[in-house]
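Open question from group meeting: does this chain pack into something compact, or does most of it stay loose? Before anyone orders reagents, we agreed to write out a predicted structure and look at it together. Recording both the input and the output here so the notebook holds the full record.
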Amino acid sequence: MKNKRRDFIKYTGLTGIGMAGGLFNSFATGIEKDKYSKENNNGTAMNYDSNSISIIGAYGAWAAGLTGNKLPALSFRKREFTNLSAWKKQARGRLIERLSIPTLGQIPRVTVKRQLEYDGLHIEEISWQLPYGPPTDAVLLKPVHSKGKLPGILAFHDHGGQKYFGTRKITRVSDEMHPVMLEHQKEYYEGFAWANEIAKRGYVVLVPDAFPFASRRVLLKDVPQSMRHGLTDDDPENPDHIDQYNKWAGDHEHIMAKSLFSAGTTWPAVFFAEDRVALDILCNRDDVDAGNIGCGGLSGGGMRTVFMGGLDERIKCAVCVGFMTTWRDFLLNKAINHTWMTYVPILPNELDFPEILGLRIPLPTMVLNDNEDELYTPDEMKRADSILAELFKKAGAPDRYKCSYYPGPHKFDKAMQAEAFAWYDKWLKR
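Structure tokens returned:
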């Protein structure tokens, strides 16, 4: 696959770090069962071996120990939390405080740029203007000749080291596709445009470009000359230009993240604010049953699902694909493999990463993992699974949570899509 997976890691803000062969395997064993004791729900101290390898060297054991000797302060797993509604109000309030979500005002006016029929679907290419940046492009899909209100899906595209592209990663609007996207869908989705496939089952599906991808990407002409590295915005659809832009955009991630922190907000907050606008637009459509809305996506789309699913109860069914682990996994093993878009300062003291998605309990929630996913360690994927299972069990809704594991690397293939689609059907087509 021409080292595409390595390129994905490299373009998520890590270009300056040497990604030598075998790196993933060395980090995957950074936490070993005989070196790290299990988290104790009673709050007793955990023992860490200071000689264990971590991505921050000898400091890993100390850093992990800062939160490792107790459950996070607002974890529903703690015995003192017995009232689900009161806990959700308190924990969500703290998450919103930590995110510092920007205010985007009223729902923007939607412009329909083009309508067409393709693949048995009615497709609308639409856009809207937020208070900042270029217009957001989006694709809406539903079955041709559908009548009445249909359940809706807010479909999130992945990161994939491809900031030049957004909606095109998971949609198809003609037989002609950009060769980069043809390869992308083949590698990560087994050749399927999954937004099309779920729309065919009787859904209105909205796929917006995320910040800062595709229509929302940072243009070279808008940054200082000294930062452009001799690149321009000319010849944009040329694969060589796209590759150069994606490398540049990967290097730019740490700048964007630090600038957002300096502005008093966080990257996940900007994602959520913009995705909430997309959800507003979807719910306000006459052809959408606003009481039956789902969301989901792979990788970066899975990360957006965690925050959207955890914070907005209009999402009645959430499917997180290829983005579920613990803060400890990021800290000790995998922050080197991930985008700057993930992190919320201070929050790990109060909620573990899976507990963000767990804020939606008891609403239906699915997590799909790949056993050989190089972005996470297997033990921590399983620990995140056990945390979510414990939350749903305590809430009296164990049947509302499901986690499945599939062979292979980071992907959302046909078999995984089939399980996700059946889960949506079960909860949104009642």
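Observations to bring back to the group:
Residues 212 and 218 are 6 Å apart (CA to CA).
The longest strand covers residues 288-298.
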